Amino acid sequence: QLQASGGGLVQAGDSLRLSCAASTLSFSTTTAWFRQAPGKERDFVAAISRRSGTTLYADSVKGRFTISRDNAKRTIALQMNSLGPEDTAVYYCAAGDRIISSRIGVADAYDYWGPGTQVTVSS
Prior knowledge:
Layout: E1 2-5, E2 8-11, E3 16-22, E4 29-36, E5 42-49, E6 55-57, E7 65-70, E8 75-80, E9 89-97, E10 112-113, E11 117-122
């Protein structure tokens, strides 16, 4: 149901835009981006509520990343600016229904996952 794209190899300071196409999204769906670096756990990056448009960001990306959605096109985007080597990871798009606010940053709260797209930032 989810397909992420837009990853690639960039240099530190560059920007990159990820996109996630969702085949079905209900009104109560929350969509999010997580990332997983080699040997590390999957970490929350950003989320957006389809109902209200409310966004939430991990502290590590605040001010640099922007999540947005186009409900008509069923796409979710992640604009990433001022990228650094610490942003290198596989980025996953996720979606879940009726996720309570306290669990928006928890990977287990999401039912649907895309296959991921690699983002590599060289120093």
